[in-house]
TrEMBL record:
Signal peptide: none annotated. Pfam families: AIM24 (PF01987). It comes from Streptomyces griseoruber. It comes from the Bacteria. This is AIM24 family protein. InterPro entries: AIM24, AIM24_sf, Trp_RNA-bd_attenuator-like_dom.
Amino acid sequence: MFRLQGSKVLAVDMTGDAVKAKNGSMVAYDGQMAFKKLSGGGEGIRGMVTRRLTGEQMTVMEVRGQGTCWFADRASEINLVSLQGDKLFVESSNLLATDAGLRTGTSFTGLRGASQGNGLFTTTVEGHGQAAITSDGPAVVLRVSPQYPLTVDPGAYIAHQGNVRQSFQSGVTFRTLLGEGGGEAFQIRFEGDGLVYVQPSERNTIAGDV
């Protein structure tokens, strides 16, 4: 159902089924489509509460119909992720579209979310189906294994999946290691077995030059 046309446009072929996508991301469609705005950042009462706590204004829309719909977001690169009953953790600003059958919610992330200014929660996508996530530049998928934990700059982090644990390392930065000073006040450390998606560009964070 999901396919890429180039690296920056997502095409979704529908035969009466539906897809959930970032509000305003539709760029074209053929056939017969119906659009409905939904509340984002989680579903139900819990989603409403977490959005109020974090100040996130993420909105999503449901697209249902017969034909093909094309989506894009500010010329960002698009990456397809297949879920087989597992859970994807993704920054809300990087989630472009999901199969309607996938469940979305929120998960407490603590320090990382606060430092990035994206709130204390991150978006979760769970079930069987496909999701499309965006990145500033071509994303790199890095493997985390028990023998090789991974440390990531929070500004470059997009998403992760698998049996992975997060922890935070503060006080030492990539830039201070290089003798440049400034940069992030901490990094994210991933341990376990899974995949981490990173982008070759850093978003601005509240941590700033510490």
